[in-house]
Structures are given as C-alpha cells and as structure tokens.
Amino acid sequence: MASTPLQPVRGTRDLIGEDFRRYHHVVTAARRITGLYGFEEWATPIFEDTRVFARSLGETSDVVSKEMYSFTDRGGDSITLRPENTAGVCRALVSNGLTQSNLPRKVFYAGPMFRYERPQKGRYRQFHQIGAEILGAAEPLADAEVIAAGWNILEALGISDGVVLEINTLGDAESRDAYRTALVAHFTAHKDSLSEDSRIRLEKNPMRILDSKDEGDRRIVATAPTIQPYLTPAASAFFAAVLKHLETLGVPTRENPRIVRGLDYYSHTAFEFVTDRLGAQGTVMAGGRYDGLVEEMGGPATPSVGWAAGVERLSMLLAASPAAPRPVAVIPVSEAQEPAAIQLTQQLRAAGVTAEIAYKGNLKRRMERANKIGARAALILGEDEVAQGVVQLRDLDAGTQDRIPPAEAVARLIG
C-alpha cells in the first residue's frame, strides 16, 4: 500500500520555477543596488542564542512573546531560529571585533527568517527578507541614504508606482520619556477598554499600544497624542535634516505620526514603504534608527539605522515573472556522435551559453525534449556532420537551418 506523499510544513513552501525566478530577481536587484551604495553582503547563522532576540526585540513584543521558534538543544542551550536579522547583524559586529574599526559598516543581507504566525497572502512561517543596515553612523544622512537605497530597489524592480514612503520620528530618549508620560495618561483613562495585550504593554512599554492591530485598541489609539509636541529641539532638528536629505535624494515622502516600529530597539527615524496593492497588509519595506542595539549585544554605543523587506511580498508586486533562460539543445543523431556533442556542449558553456544535451532517445525524441525546455536553437550532429567538421544550427524560433563549423555556431549563439 502506497504511503501518503509528504507535504511542506504549514506556512512553508517550495520555491520552484516561476516562484524561484521571482525570488532570485528581487534578491539580485537588491544586491546590485545596495552594492552601488557601498554595502557589503554578510551572511549570519539562521539560528542564534535566544538572548540575541529576547534582549533586543523586547519581552513584550509579539515576536518574542508569541512568534519565535525557540528550542533547547542537546547541550541545554536555548536556541532560536532568527525571526529577523538586524539583531544578528549587530551581534556579528560585536562577535567579530568590528565595533572599533572602519565604521560605519554598510551591510546587506538576504535569507530565510522564521515566525510562528497565521499564514496568509504573502506571509509565511518561513519567509525571506532582504535588509540593509548602516552600523556606526549617527548622522541624519545615514538614515536618508539607507532609505534611498530601498527606494532605488523598488524602482529597479519596477514596483515603485503606488508605493509611498511614510515616515515618523520616535525622538531621542528625553522626547520619548515625555511622550511616554502623555501616553500613559491617555491609555490609563481608557484602560478598561484596552485589549489584554495592551493592558500589559501599558505597564511595560505604552508605545507598543500604538502598533496594536486590535480594533478596539485602534479606536483609542486614534485619539492618542502624537510625539511631535514632546520632541526636544535636537530631535526635531534631526528629523528635519532627514526629510531635507530625502528631498535632495529624490525620495517622495509622507509624514505619518502614527508610525511606530514594533521592536524595542528603535529611536528617531521610523518608516515604512506601503502600498494598497497587497490588501490590508500593505507594508513592503520598513525600518528605522536603532542607536542602542549594539550595546544590547555587549558592544559599545554604536548608532545605526536600517530596514528589512519581505521578498515574497516584493515578488507579488512584480508586473511579470522574469523569463527563464532559454538554452541551446545539442542533439547527437545517434550514440556514435555523443562524444562530439558533449565536447560542443562544453564549448557553449565555456562561452557563457546555457546548453543542454538530451541523455537518450532518437532524433525525434531529442527534438521533442528541445521544444519542452524552450530551447532557442538546436545544434544537430549526425554522422556526416562529424565527418565533415560541421554542425546543423537550427533556429527554433525562425525555423531556419544552417550547416556551419562548430566555432561559428558557438559565436552566433553568444549573447
């Protein structure tokens, strides 16, 4: 009796064919654009000491309290699959002794993340992110540059139309202290109407209530004070400078005083690129400044700023799927011509031409294989061709055929 075929775990999926081409296209474009800004790519482990995330994301965050994949390994250590990668990048900066040399560091990353949340359109339990971080820069221009890099990625992907940068400031420590007092007073007056999660946050981190998705909480948040009246002159000046630099860099912005980041390590700039093309979950890229995170990892004070974006959600915005490369099919008429066909296939590959040779079958079956793989041309080698040192080049789009030397055929097929 046949066993039931195994399926991917709920909230995960295979990236095959068109899905992988979309994923690869997004990551490749992001890698290219961040490279133009001087970012270097880092790859950190997909699992870390749980303290990396529990200390940096905040015990009251949904990620830590509800969504992390944590387990105790055989050595008794608490390990967590990374739910995001900013904390891991900052840990790597400290672990590798890079906090005192060659700052700022501009870091790009791409890879899988893991959160136990309800799967929905564009959101998975294993998902992929790209991200950019500038570590060790306190200046407003760093905020503007990392945001501009994100905007340029959206432009390069052809998905910037209908996407808006919404931006806010969370102020400096003094600003947030004053704002916290105002928020506590506001939410305490509505405490009985708050959700259970928000009542807990009221005691520990009232700014988190601003990010609540509960409908009852949202009505109370709508009348909450904004941070702007509580900003210090220095914090106001910093935010004004960020906006000015973004204008110079040509990034269209819209101020949104309700934007907060859902993690404890953010300060000053907070931003989201949003769209209405993905339904209610419209954020495609988000980030901000996090001047205290490297210290949480045991390093010195290292002002930093960055963003992350979900590859799956960016992929959904692409107007068309990237085309699969069209190979050249090399077809020996019989087994006797296989050695010459193998040599020709390798010549094509050495010249940068995608080439395939069918492993078996007569001429008809091998030509059928060429059509199935979408080959743009076929190089046919029979007994006469091998003897005469030529090959039949058949253009499968135009239907034309030439009998030419192999070197000339390779030259024609390059590009």
UniProtKB/TrEMBL annotation:
Name this protein carries in UniProt: Histidine--tRNA ligase
Catalytic EC class: ligase
Gene: hisS
PANTHER family, alphabetized: HISTIDINE--TRNA LIGASE, MITOCHONDRIAL-RELATED (PTHR43707:SF1), HISTIDYL-TRNA SYNTHETASE (PTHR43707)
Listed HAMAP family: His_tRNA_synth
Protein's cellular compartments: Cytoplasm
GO biological process, one term: histidyl-tRNA aminoacylation
Binding, L-histidine: 84-86, 115, 129, 133, 261, 265-266
